[in-house]
Prior knowledge:
With 472 residues, the chain is α/β, with parallel strands linked by helices. It has helices at 18-27, 42-47, 49-66, 82-106, 166-169, 186-197, 217-229, 323-337, 366-371, 387-391, 420-432, 437-442, 452-462; strands at 3-12, 32-36, 110-118, 123-128, 133-144, 148-150, 163-164, 178-182, 201-205, 233-235, 239-245, 250-255, 261-266, 268-271, 275-277, 310-312, 351-353, 358-363, 376-382, 397-404, 410-417. The protein has 3 domains: 3-150 and 276-337, 3-Layer(bba) Sandwich (FAD/NAD(P)-binding domain), CATH 3.50.50.60; 163-273, FAD/NAD(P)-binding domain, CATH 3.50.50; 351-462, Enolase-like, domain 1 (2-Layer Sandwich). The longest helix has 25 residues, at 82-106.
Amino acid sequence: MSVSRSVDVVVLGAGPAGYVCAIRLAQLGKKVTVIDKAEVGGVCLNRGCIPSKALIHAGSLYEKIRHGAELGIVVEKARVDMPKLVEWKNGVVKKLTTGVQGLLKANGCEFIAGDAKLLSNTSLEVKTAGGKATEVLNFKNLVVATGSRPMAIKGLEVDNVRVLDSTGALDQTEIPKRLLCIGGGYIGLELGTFYAKVGSEVTVVEAAPRILMSVEADLAKVVERGLKKRNVKVLLNTQVKSLASSKTEVKATFKLPDGKESTETFDKVLVTIGRTPNTDAIGLEKAGVKCDAKGFIIVDAARKTSNAAIYAIGDVAGQPLLAHKGSKEGIVAAEAIAGMKTVYDVKAMPAVVFTDPEVATVGLTEEEAKAKGFTPKVGVFPFAANGRALSVAEPDGMVKVIGDAKTGRLLGVHIVGVEASNLIAEAALALEMGAQVEDLALTVHAHPTLPETMMEAAEAVLGHAIHIFQKK
Length: 472
């Protein structure tokens, strides 16, 4: 028998969109109930951003140790203890999720671990304790933040034994000798690079003509060179037709660019084709919430859905599927529910790929700038000409600044190289504030540092970079 009670605001999902929204709602005086069928922190903290970056850091450290002799540092017989590494990674995750639990509690948010489904436009049912206990919550407002999951592809079914999704790839206690990564996007390349660094023979298969189709081609080429340096085999314009698993290996059949087929054998296969929103099993139709053809919830500038009492944030609200985008939307939705005139009007949404070297982008690409009627003027500064990059033995990459030739306005910044993930913050701030390219060039940057590359790339747009020669 269900127990019914009334609540103020329900946040469905406790990931980086949901928990941020809940805390902001509580700060604004709302009584908040957070529901998640898994755990606090969502995919990002538990099975995505944080654990993957922990492994990537460890892989980079191991690689640096192995090549330390080039710097005069010799370490004999370095090895990776995968069970210990996974244990450390899990410890990092636990610290962060425990911290989020504490923040929710400190702000007076109620948390329910359970599976929720809408019954009407003002109520939902929560099944807890393995589906045994049932509760009906009548709400004034609901925020849907249920996230996304790896896309299922027929013929490439995941069992997380031999055929892995991104979650399974984070918990391997043995290093696969031969690893196939299906998909040359950011998830496949991040995890594929990690496994290549710790000793796997990695093959990446991508159906498109190049890897990282979401970033500019010249940046992707630098990443591809990094993969080749680590003996990663990259097959472009190639499709995986089927997988056949046994107890010890997986046979993958490829359709090659010439139309012919070939079969190769691997110990493990990582499938990273894409993600789909978790909107198909929560009863949205009973609340009059409309979705688009791909299952993403349609929202307005305040993140309100077709039901005026229900909001949607994070991956379910559409592209880009980024944790920080979801967090921003969470704040917008919370403030809108509280009666503030807040809307989602972000001008600069950065994106990062944690390959080696890293890629970070914000703003318009050259092609996008042209399509919007700008006359792009580009300045490029290589990391190989930066003293700090050379002194930390990381010369690969560049900073690319795009400005409008007519107005001098900053349009976009694209970075491939060491610490790109941190360097992009300055560019995001500049774009959000409506800066001119000259503003970046005139800002004094400390020396010797990596951010000097940003200043020099801006100077290159203006035609007077100091530490590279520019033809007149």
